[in-house]
Specification:
The chain is mainly alpha-helical. The chain contains 23 helices and twelve strands. The strands form six sheets. It has a two-stranded antiparallel sheet with strand order 1-2. The chain has a two-stranded antiparallel sheet with strand order 3-4. Helix 9 (240-268) crosses helix 21 (575-608) and helix 19 packs across helix 22 (626-664). The protein is elongated, with a radius of gyration of 33 Å. The protein starts with a helix and ends with a helix.
Length: 698
C-alpha cells in the first residue's frame, strides 16, 4: 500500500508548483518587511512621550533627560475629536521634571514670588518680556496650573471624589486663567480621552502581575488537562464503546452540578445588600469578582447551563441509534490509531510549528507593527482654538512665525501632530501591516494543512491495506509527512492561501465595523453585519472543503482543485452518511472536550478562589482571579482539541475512504472491499436502514 501511494505521487509529480513558488516569494518578502521595519523604525517613539516639537521626554543623552514627564497646557482640549483623528491633543505640550503640585494661574503668579516655580512649566527659553495677553496667545505658558499626578509619564489632574463630588485639591471648580471658572467635570472629559490607552496599559500590567504569580499553577492545570486527555484517548483505544457512554453520562452530570451550584449561589445571595443590582446598571468591571456578588449573574449562568443540558439530552434521545453507528466508527478509528500510535504525538509537531509562526509574528511581526507605526518622520500641523481654514495643514515650526499661515490665523500655532511622512515608504505602511497579518494567517493555515495531510496519509495507508496490519508500512506517519512536503507543498499553500484571504477580509471588516460604530447610518450597519455573517459562513465552508480536499490529496496525490472537487461531489453523493456518521462523531468528540475542559475549569475555579480548604493558603493572591482560570480553560480546550483532532482526522479519513471504497469496489474476489468486516457490517447496515427510512418518508 505504501508503494502504491508513493507511485501515485511520483506519477502525478509535484502539484500546484506555482503556489509553492508564490509561498516562497511571500516568505522572502515577509523577511524583507521585517528588515525594512528594523531599519527605519525607532523604538523610542513607543517608549517615550513626545512634546509639541516632537522631542522625547526623559531620554538619556538629550536636553530632556531630566524631564521625564509630559505636561499638557490645557488638558480640557484633549476632549476634542482631533485626539482620535491625529492621536495628539491640540494643546501645547512640554517635558517637565515633575508635575505641578499646586493650583496657580499665570495672572496671579506673574507678579509674585511663585513666578519662578511657574516658569518651569512654560516653553523652554521663555523670557518674561511680553505682555500677559501675548504670552497666552502665543502659547508660551499655560493659563493655569492644576495639581497633577504622573501616570505613564504624563501629568493628569489629581481628581478625586469626596462624598460623591469630584474635586481637584479642595475645589470643585477651577479658574481657567482667562478670568472665568469652570467645572471639574470638564477636566475629567479631557483626561478620559488622553487617558484611554493608559487605562488599558494599567489593566495589562495587572494581568501580567497575575501571570507572574500564578504561572506555575497554570502550568500544573494544563498538565492535568494533558494527562486527562491522554488517559481518555488511551482508554478510548481499548474501551471505545464504554468510554463514549461514560463520557456522555459525565457531561450530563457535570452540567447538572453546574446548574445546582448556580442555584445554591443564587439562593445564598437572597437578601444580601447590593445583590439585586442588575448587570446593565453595574456596567463593565475589570474585576469580575464583582459580578459574582449579583443574583442576576448566577441566574444567567443557571439558565445558560440548563438550556445546554436540555439541548444535549434531546440530541442524545434523537440520535441514540446513530450514536451506536458512530461508536463503531470510533472503534475502527481506535484500531487505526493503535497501529499508528506515533500519530498521537503529531499534535506536538503542529503545536511547535505554530509556536514558531506565532513567535516570529510576535517578535518580528509584533515588533514590526510597533516599528512600522513608529518608523516615520515628525509631522507638524496647524492647530487653532478658533475657526481657521488652515487648521490641520502641515507646517514647519522653524519658519511658521514668519510664514503667511501665521498672518492668516494669528492665534494658530505649529505643533507636533504625529510621526508620519509623504514618501512612498510612508504611504505603504498600512499595506505592509496588512501584509504582516496576512502572512501570519497564511503560514498558520499552511502548518495546520500539513498536519491534516500527514495524518490523512497515515490513516489512509491503514485503510487501504488489504491485510491489516500486515500490509501496513513500517513508518506510515513519517512516510506521509515526507510525501506531503516533497510532492504537495504547493497544494497545501493553495488551500491555505484561499483561507488566509477570507480571514484577512474578516479582519478588515471587523476594523471597519469598529470605525463605523459611532455612525448613525443604519443601512451601513446592516450591510456590515450581513458581510461579516457571509464571510464567517464562507470561512467555515472553506475549512470543511479544505479538510476533505487534503484527505483526497493524501490518497490520490492530485492537485488541490481536483481533490476539492472530487471530495465535494463524493460527500454530496453520500450526504446521508455524512449526516449520520461524520457529524455525530464530531458531536461525541465535542462532548469529550467539554468533559475535560469542564472538569479542569471547575477545579481551577475552586483553587484560585480559595475554596479548597486543603490548599486554601497555597493559591496565590491575584488582582483578577479570572485571568488564570480563563487561561487554564482555554489552554485545556486547546490541549484536548489537539488530542481529539487526531481521532477526528482519523474518522474523517476512514469515512471518506469508506465512501470511495463503496464506489470503486463491490466486495467480490476481483474487487474486494478494503474496509474491515466489523466496519462493513455496521456501516452498510446503518446505510440500509437510512435508505429504507427515506423510502418510507417518500
Amino acid at each position: 500500500q505504501e508503494n502504491r501511494l508513493r507511485k501515485i505521487s511520483r506519477a502525478l509529480g509535484c502539484t500546484d508548483v506555482i503556489c509553492c513558488v508564490f509561498l516562497l516569494l511571500a516568505i522572502v518578502g515577509y523577511v524583507a518587511v521585517g528588515i525594512i521595519a528594523w531599519t527605519h523604525g525607532d523604538p523610542r517613539k513607543v517608549i517615550y512621550p513626545t512634546d509639541s516639537r516632537g522631542e522625547f521626554c526623559g531620554q538619556k543623552g538629550t536636553k530632556n533627560a531630566n524631564k521625564p514627564y509630559l505636561f499638557y497646557f490645557n488638558i480640557v482640549k484633549c476632549a476634542s475629536p482631533l485626539v482620535l483623528l491625529e492621536f495628539q491633543c491640540p494643546t501645547p505640550q512640554i517635558c517637565v521634571e515633575k508635575c505641578p503640585n499646586r493650583y496657580l494661574t499665570y495672572l496671579n503668579a506673574r507678579n509674585s514670588r511663585d513666578f519662578e516655580y511657574y516658569k518651569q512649566f512654560c516653553v523652554p527659553g521663555f523670557q518674561n518680556n511680553k505682555g500677559v495677553a501675548e504670552v497666552l496667545r502665543d502659547g508660551d505658558c499655560p493659563a493655569v496650573l492644576i495639581p497633577s499626578k504622573p501616570l505613564a509619564r504624563r501629568c493628569f489632574p489629581a481628581i478625586h471624589a469626596h462624598k460623591g463630588v469630584l474635586m481637584v485639591g479642595n475645589e470643585t471648580t477651577y479658574e481657567d486663567g482667562h478670568g472665568s471658572r469652570k467645572n471639574i467635570t470638564e477636566l475629567v472629559e479631557g483626561a478620559k480621552k488622553a487617558n484611554g490607552v493608559l487605562e488599558a496599559r494599567q489593566l495589562a500590567m495587572r494581568i501580567f502581575e497575575d501571570y507572574t504569580v500564578s504561572w506555575y499553577w497554570i502550568v500544573i492545570g494544563l498538565v492535568i488537562a494533558m494527562v486527562m486527555s491522554l488517559l481518555f484517548i488511551i482508554l478510548l483505544r481499548f474501551l471505545a464503546g464504554i468510554m463514549v457512554w461514560v463520557m456522555i453520562v459525565m457531561v450530563i452530570l457535570v452540567l447538572g452540578y453546574g446548574i445546582f451550584h448556580c442555584y445554591m449561589e443564587y439562593s445564598r445571595l437572597r437578601g444580601e445588600a447590593g445583590s439585586d443590582v442588575s448587570l446593565v446598571d453595574l456596567g463593565f468591571q475589570t474585576d469580575l469578582r464583582v459580578y459574582l456578588h449579583l443574583r442576576q449573574t448566577w441566574m444567567a449562568f443557571m439558565i445558560i447551563l440548563s438550556i445546554l443540558e436540555v439541548i444535549i439530552v434531546l440530541l442524545l434521545i434523537f440520535l441514540r441509534k446513530r450514536i451506536l453507528i458512530a461508536i463503531a466508527l470510533i472503534k475502527e478509528a481506535s484500531r487505526a490509531v493503535g497501529y499508528v500510535m506515533c500519530s498521537m504525538l503529531y499534535p506536538l509537531v503542529t503545536f511547535f510549528l505554530l509556536c514558531l509562526c506565532i513567535a516570529y509574528w510576535a517578535s518580528w511581526g509584533g515588533a514590526r507593527t510597533h516599528f512600522l507605526s513608529t518608523s516615520n518622520e515628525a509631522v507638524y500641523k496647524i492647530f487653532d482654538d478658533v475657526a481657521c481654514p488652515l487648521t490641520g495643514k502641515t507646517c514647519n515650526p522653524e519658519t511658521f512665525p514668519s510664514a503667511n499661515e501665521s498672518r492668516l490665523c494669528p492665534n494658530a500655532r505649529c505643533q507636533f501632530a504625529f510621526y508620519g511622512g509623504e514618501s512612498g515608504y510612508h504611504r505603504a505602511l498600512l499595506g505592509l501591516q496588512i501584509f504582516n497579518a496576512f502572512m501570519f494567517f497564511w503560514l498558520a493555515n499552511f502548518v495546520l494543512a500539513l498536519g491534516q495531510v500527514t495524518l490523512a496519509g497515515a490513516f489512509a495507508s491503514y485503510y487501504w491495506a488489504l491485510r491489516k496490519p500486515d500490509d501496513l508500512p513500517a513508518f506510515p506517519l513519517f512516510s506521509a509527512f515526507g510525501r506531503a512536503l516533497r510532492y504537495h507543498t504547493g497544494s497545501l499553500a493553495f488551500g491555505a492561501l484561499i483561507l488566509a484571504i477570507v480571514q484577512i477580509i474578516r479582519v478588515i471588516l471587523e476594523y471597519l465595523d469598529q470605525r463605523l460604530k459611532a455612525a448613525e447610518n443604519k443601512f451601513a450597519k446592516f450591510l456590515m453585519t450581513c458581510l461579516k455573517c457571509c464571510f464567517w459562513c464562507l470561512e467555515k465552508f472553506i475549512k470543511f472543503l479544505n479538510r476533505n480536499a487534503y484527505i483526497m490529496i493524501a490518497i490520490y496525490g492530485t492537485n488541490f482543485c481536483t481533490s476539492a472537487r472530487n471530495a465535494f461531489f463524493l460527500l454530496m453523493r453520500n450526504i446521508i452518511r455524512v449526516a449520520v456518521l461524520d457529524k455525530v462523531t464530531d458531536f461525541l468528540f465535542l462532548l469529550g472536550k467539554l468533559l475535560i475542559v469542564g472538569s479542569v475549569g471547575i477545579l481551577a475555579f475552586f483553587f484560585f478562589t480559595h475554596r479548597i480548604r486543603i490548599v486554601q493558603d497555597t493559591a496565590p493572591p491575584l488582582n483578577y482571579y479570572w485571568v488564570p482560570i480563563l487561561t487554564v480553560i482555554i489552554g485545556s480546550y486547546l490541549i484536548a482539541h489537539g488530542f481529539f483532532s487526531v481521532y477526528g482526522m482519523c474518522v474523517d479519513t476512514l469515512f471518506l475512504c469508506f465512501c470511495e471504497d463503496l464506489e470503486r469496489n463491490d466486495g467480490s474476489q476481483e474487487r474486494p472491499y478494503f474496509m474491515s468486516p466489523e466496519l462493513r457490517d455496521i456501516l452498510l447496515k446503518g446505510s440500509a436502514e437510512e435508505g429504507k427510512r427515506e423510502e418510507v418518508e417518500e
